Amino acid sequence: DKITGDKHWIYLNGKEDGYHIIAVGVELEEGQSLIRIVLSAQSTHGDRNKAVEYCKMLGEHLKGEVHLFNDRVMFFYPRK
Predict the structure, then answer these.
(1) CB atoms within 10 A of CB 16
(2) What is the pLDDT of residue 27?
(3) Are 45 and 52 in contact (CB under 8 A)?
(4) Of all helices (H) and strands (E), which one includes residue 11?
(5) Rg of the chain's alpha carbons, rounded to an integer?
(6) Are the beta carbons of 46 and 11 closer than 8 angstroms?
(7) Are 40 and 31 in contact (CB under 8 A)?
(8) DSSP state letters, 16-62
(9) Alpha-carbon torsion 65, 66, 70, 71, what sign?
């Protein structure tokens, strides 16, 4: 994914060694709001771990569905 286009992005920059940048984008797709978390090519394992924890926290808070970087899906809403 490119971190460009007409989406609205927030950039989370790391201040400590081992962390670079995590981009958070918000978009509307097929009538659903999506929050997209993107890592740069220079991202470290620390960035990836922080991004996964952030995704889980958002999923729990918003009671949504989270598609992780390893293609696994976590559900935080009640399913039948």
Answers:
(1) 6
(2) 84
(3) no
(4) strand 8-13
(5) 13
(6) no
(7) no
(8) STT--EEEEEEEEETTEEEEEEEE-TT--HHHHHHHHHHHHHHHHHH
(9) positive
